[in-house]
Known about the structure:
The chain is an all-alpha fold. The protein has a single domain, classed as Four Helix Bundle (Hemerythrin (Met), subunit A). Helices cover 75% and strands 0% of the residues. The chain has 6 helices and no strands. Helix 1 (2-17) packs antiparallel against helix 6. It is elongated, with a radius of gyration of 15 Å. The chain starts with a helix and ends with a helix. The relative contact order is 0.19. The model has no long low-confidence stretch (mean pLDDT 94).
Amino acid sequence: MTAVLLGASVPLVAQLRTLDGDRASGRRTAATLLGATATRVVYSILVVAAFALLPLAWAIGALPTGGLLPFLTAPLAMRLGDVVSHRAGNALEGAQREALLLAVLFVAVLAVGALLPL
């Protein structure tokens, strides 16, 4: 579930980057329908929820202790959240790559951590 949340957040960064052009051409994306501010809020909710579900899953026994290792990616998520919330247009180009990197690292570390006998 957490991987799905982070995966859903990646296209939102791309849509924020192309928002003005998409609006001008009449393209319908989540960002054009919601607007920049609401898209940023949805992005933040998805990322925070992905991290928040980890200790919940651990507490109910659905995730071993090693499954908490994705918190090692939290600094990247926090830096990326700052970029997404304060930049627009082409200034978000690097953020697209970082959003994808965050999702991949989070899932990889989660998979490894879930397999560790901790």
